[in-house]
Design brief:
Blueprint (H helix, E strand, L loop, with lengths): L1 H5 L1 H27 L9 H12 L1 H34 L13 H4 L1 H25 L4 E4 L2 E4 L1 H8 L3 H28 L5 H31 L1
Antiparallel strand pairs: 1-2
Helix pairs in contact: 2-4, 2-8, 2-9, 6-8, 8-9
Bound molecules: protoporphyrin IX containing FE.
């Protein structure tokens, strides 16, 4: 098993499985965040949803799994990239890119990943860390005291440059996903021509939904 995970196909497999897990996480996270737009004045719907996500026992199990998913994805992403650079450096022949890996996004996955990671650090410090270890605002919903996560988010999104950092982060995430989505399935074996085309289309739809969905939120608080 250890030998398999350190082989190049084993590393790619881990990256693809952890990436698919993160792809599902993003959809769930987006769904919860979009509830902010249902009652954008006091944010009761979002606060209830965030409180449910923060206290539900299933989510308590998912949290360390999510951290592990990010950790494995980032670690193996770096290892695969370093191996690629090493292989390219030691090859005496010019490396000819395949057509499918010749897009700008595919050649810059590592840098897009580094950018998304930087965004993630800022994001975790501003939200997750404040909610878990800081003194977040609180509110009462149906007699239950809970974090006013809505206030935390909406106050930050009233700062234009903060929105800009987020929107740039979403664009980098979108470019990363544009290549990552079909590539993850290709690693799992769905790599014939028909499936490649289908997965590219599904991946692009997914990417547009995720990028547009996340972007609407800061824009909403900036404009209204
Ligand atoms: C408008 C966009 C977004 C908003 C408003 C938002 C809001 C939040 C909030 C409030 C939390 C803390 C939740 C809690 O601990 O109760 C959180 C956590 C988190 N966010 Fe986001 N987020 C956004 C986009 C993203 C994106 C694009 C990513 C990934 C690239 C992401 C990844 C995470 C992760 C990994 C956590 C920690 C795990 C969790 O608590 O679910 N978020 N986000």
């Amino acid at each position: 098993m250890k030998g398999f995970l350190s082989s190049s196909i084993g590393k790619k497999l881990l990256m693809s499985l952890s990436g698919l897990f993160l792809i599902v996480f993003l959809l769930v996270h987006l769904g919860v965040n979009l509830t902010m737009l249902f009652d954008p004045i006091d944010g009761t719907v979002y606060n209830k949803a965030a409180n449910f996500m923060g206290t539900n026992p299933i989510m308590k199990v998912m949290e360390p799994l999510l951290a592990l998913g990010f950790f494995l994805h980032i670690l193996y992403g770096i290892i695969v990239q370093l191996n690629n650079w090493k292989a390219r450096g030691s090859s005496k022949y010019a490396v000819v890119d395949q057509k499918d890996s010749s897009t700008w996004a595919s050649r810059n996955m590592i840098w897009l990943g580094v950018f998304v990671f930087t965004f993630l650090i800022v994001h975790i410090i501003n939200y997750y860390a404040v909610l878990k270890f800081g003194q977040p605002p609180s509110t009462h919903v149906d007699g239950v005291e809970m974090h006013n996560t809505f206030k935390l988010v909406s106050d930050l999104f009233e700062i234009w440059w903060y929105d800009l950092i987020y929107i740039i982060g979403f664009i980098a995430l979108g470019l990363h996903l544009h290549h990552a989505f079909w590539s993850a399935f290709q690693t799992l074996g769905l790599n014939n021509k028909i499936w490649r085309r289908r997965l590219e289309i599904i991946g692009d739809i997914y990417t547009i939904v995720v990028v547009a969905g996340f972007t609407i939120i800061p824009l909403y608080f900036l404009i209204f």
